[in-house]
Structure formats: structure tokens, C-alpha cells
Design a protein that fits this description.
Blueprint (H helix, E strand, L loop, with lengths): L10 H25 L5 H22 L4 H21 L9 H17 L2 H23 L3 H71 L6 H26 L12 H9 L5 E5 L10 H21 L6 E7 L5 E8 L15 H11 L3 E6 L5 E8 L6 H10 L1
Parallel strand pairs: 1-2
Antiparallel strand pairs: 2-3, 3-5, 4-5
Length: 397
């Protein structure tokens, strides 16, 4: 079984966060709102903001996909609190430890989970917010400057912890990917050395029997066995290629050819789909259906990315004459006059070509007509390649 990523245990960390944040809020409540007598409005505001930011910091675990929004909300709330404190009369003594810790936790979370550029922006905003808060709220004194330095150090520690966790996730994913590759290669070797070898032996012996019994009544049955063995050998050979090259792995499809094409097109009303009559009853291998899905999906994505002004987009799927190949054509008229269209900068066409090559098919992509761009793929159907040729190809490997 291939290894799967298991989330690390976090219950202890959650309990620790709840205890520390609750302790800081309770300490501020007791010290500022009870022991020191009636508290000014600023003290109540700082306590409320610290409590809300603590809740936001805990919610990041429940909603990891919204870490950026929670962090931005926390930064905005802290900045608003600092603005109110700057305009109002400074509080008697500095406070806000719970708020600073919660904001540091949120900054560490974005450094851990968000892409590099976004994480840097949120980290800088959080650092400026934390470092400026004591001075804006409590005045420019030696004590407040010391608190600003401490909060800046807390921010730096949160960034370092977030980056350490980010690096740990990357290392774990790399280790899992390497383990999956080793498992894949081991399966490919087993299939190539054992299954393909035995199937090749069956095909060769069947061919020999066909020569010996050339005029016998069993000749038709022998040809069927030979053909089935050759197809099985070709399927094993393609499976070995896909296991050795994960980028060639076909997507899993649960429907037939017609359903697969319709699923790839989706609800895009600008695309005209033309399917040949009887396509649903056509005998098509599962790997061919998956490749058709990939060709249509990738071609339409390229149209949306590189030809957004195309007025006509067509998808044509039909068998060729004699039903020896399946023809998949995706065209559009989004090529501007005098403009040379280059292949996309990514690996879309390369990936399609590799998938189609693994099935012994062909791919043509380029200009078609005055304003047209076309992707044309032809994939062999069962019976399109002779059993003898398939057997020879498998034996050569």
C-alpha cells in the first residue's frame, strides 16, 4: 500500500494555546478591571480586543483554509484598537499580552500555510502592528519602547516557528513522494518481469499453435486467444510506462466516452460539442477514455488562457474510417491576424503528447486556417494494431 500523509497530533497544542490565552485574559481582567478599581473605557477595549483575537487564533485550526482572512481580521482589529488608543487618553499602565500572543500565533500560521509572497505580506503587516501598538496606545516612554521590543521579538519567534513548520511539511511531503515513487517502481518491475513475461509466453505459444493447426477448425479460436493476449500485453506495457512516469498516469474515469467528454466540457455554453453517432456503443479501453478526457480538458483550458476572444470553440470526437482510430479535435478561432501563436509556457501539450504516445497515438497542435488553432489527437481503438505487432513490441521489451 502506498504511504499516505497523516496529520500530526495537535490536541496537546490546542489545549496549551487555550490555557495560555485564557490565563493571560484572566490575568488582565483581574489586574485591570478588579484589583485596580473602575477601569477606563480604554482598558475595557483592550481586554475585549485581546479576547476576540484569542478566539480568531483558535479558529485558525478549525478553518485552516481561512487562515489569511482570520489573520487579516486580527491585524485590522488591532490597528483599529491602536488608532483609538492614540486618539484617546493613554491608559494608566500598558497591557495587551493576550492580544500580542494571539496576533503572533496568527502570523506564525500564515508563515506556515500561505504561499511565500502572501505569507511575507501578512508577516510584515503583523510585525508592524505588534511593534507599533504599545507606542500608539500608551505613549512614547521607556517602558512602552521596551514592551514594543519584546512584542517585536515575539513576532520574530512566531515567524521562525512558522517557517520551521513549513519546512517540516515540505520535507515530509518529499519523503512521502519518494516512498510512493519507490513503491511505483517496484510494482512496475514486478509487472514487467513477471506478468508481461508470462503473457508474452502465452502469445508466442498461441502463435506457434496457429502455425501447427493452420488448417484446423481451431484456427479462429486460436486467433481470438492470440488477439486477447496481445491486447493484455499492450495494456501491461502501458501500465508499466505510467507507473514509471507518474506524470503519465491516467485520471480515473467512472463513465463512458460520451459522459467523459461532456464532463470535460462542463457547463461552458461557448463550446460546441459534436459527437459521432454510436459513440456510446464504441469499444474503447479505459486508458483511452482517460486520455480523451485529458486532451479535451487541457485544450479547453488553453483556449481560455491564450484565446479568450475566441468566438467559436468546437470539440469533435468521432472514430476514423474503419474504426481503427478515435479522432479527438478541439479547435477555436481566437488566433489574431499577424500574430504567431506559441505553445503554452507550461507542460500541457507536453503532457498530452506523452499520454498519447504511451497509447501509440498521434498528436498535432498548431494553426489551422486564417484565425484557427487546433489540437488533433488520434488514438488507436481495439483492433487498430495487429496482435503480432503488439506481441513483438512486448517481447522486445
Amino acid at each position: 500500500m502506498l504511504p499516505t500523509a497523516a496529520p500530526p497530533p495537535v490536541r496537546g497544542l490546542v489545549i496549551a494555546e487555550v490555557v495560555v490565552l485564557a490565563a493571560l485574559n484572566i490575568e488582565q481582567l483581574v489586574r485591570r478591571l478588579i484589583l485596580d478599581g473602575p477601569a477606563p473605557a480604554g482598558e475595557i477595549l483592550y481586554f475585549a480586543v485581546g479576547l476576540v483575537l484569542g478566539v480568531l487564533a483558535l479558529l485558525r485550526r478549525r478553518f485552516p483554509a481561512r487562515t489569511a482572512a482570520l489573520t487579516l481580521s486580527g491585524i485590522a482589529l488591532s490597528l483599529a484598537c491602536s488608532a483609538v488608543g492614540f486618539l484617546a487618553e493613554p491608559a494608566a499602565a500598558p497591557s495587551g499580552d493576550a492580544e500580542s500572543l494571539a496576533l503572533a500565533i496568527l502570523v506564525g500560521a500564515v508563515c506556515h500555510r500561505l504561499p511565500g509572497g502572501h505569507a511575507a505580506v501578512y508577516a510584515v503587516l503583523g510585525g508592524l502592528t505588534m511593534a507599533a501598538a504599545p507606542v500608539l496606545r500608551f505613549g512614547d516612554t521607556f517602558t512602552t519602547l521596551s514592551i514594543a521590543v519584546v512584542w517585536a521579538l515575539l513576532w520574530g519567534c512566531s515567524v521562525i516557528v512558522g517557517l520551521i513548520l513549513r519546512d517540516g511539511d515540505a520535507r515530509r511531503e518529499a519523503a512521502l513522494a519518494a516512498a510512493r515513487d519507490r513503491e511505483r517502481l517496484a510494482l512496475a518491475r514486478e509487472l514487467h518481469d513477471l506478468v508481461a513475461h508470462h503473457i508474452t509466453g502465452v502469445v508466442v505459444r498461441t502463435q506457434a499453435a496457429g502455425v501447427v493447426l493452420a488448417d484446423g477448425p481451431e484456427q479462429e479460436l486460436i486467433k481470438e486467444i492470440e488477439h486477447a493476449g496481445a491486447e493484455a500485453l499492450g495494456a501491461v506495457r502501458r501500465l508499466v510506462m505510467m507507473l514509471r512516469s507518474p506524470e503519465l498516469a491516467s485520471q480515473v474515469t467512472v463513465g463512458g466516452l460520451v459522459e467523459t467528454v461532456e464532463a470535460a466540457v462542463g457547463d461552458d455554453e461557448s463550446v460546441t460539442v459534436r459527437l459521432a453517432d454510436g459513440l456510446a456503443e464504441l469499444a474503447v479501453a479505459p486508458e483511452t477514455v482517460s486520455t480523451v478526457h485529458r486532451v479535451v480538458l487541457e485544450s479547453l483550458n488553453n483556449v481560455r488562457r491564450h484565446a479568450p476572444d475566441a468566438r467559436r470553440v468546437t470539440v469533435l470526437v468521432e472514430p476514423t474510417e474503419g474504426r481503427r482510430h478515435l479522432r479527438v479535435e478541439v479547435g477555436n478561432d481566437g488566433l489574431r491576424p499577424g500574430r504567431v501563436r506559441r505553445s503554452p509556457g507550461g507542460y500541457g501539450l507536453i503532457g498530452m503528447a506523452e499520454r498519447i504516445s504511451a497509447l501509440d497515438g498521434t498528436l498535432i497542435a498548431g494553426e489551422h486556417g486564417e484565425r484557427g488553432w487546433r489540437v488533433l489527437a488520434e488514438l488507436p481503438l481495439p483492433g487498430g494494431v495487429s496482435p503480432a505487432a503488439a506481441a513483438e513490441g512486448g517481447a522486445a521489451r
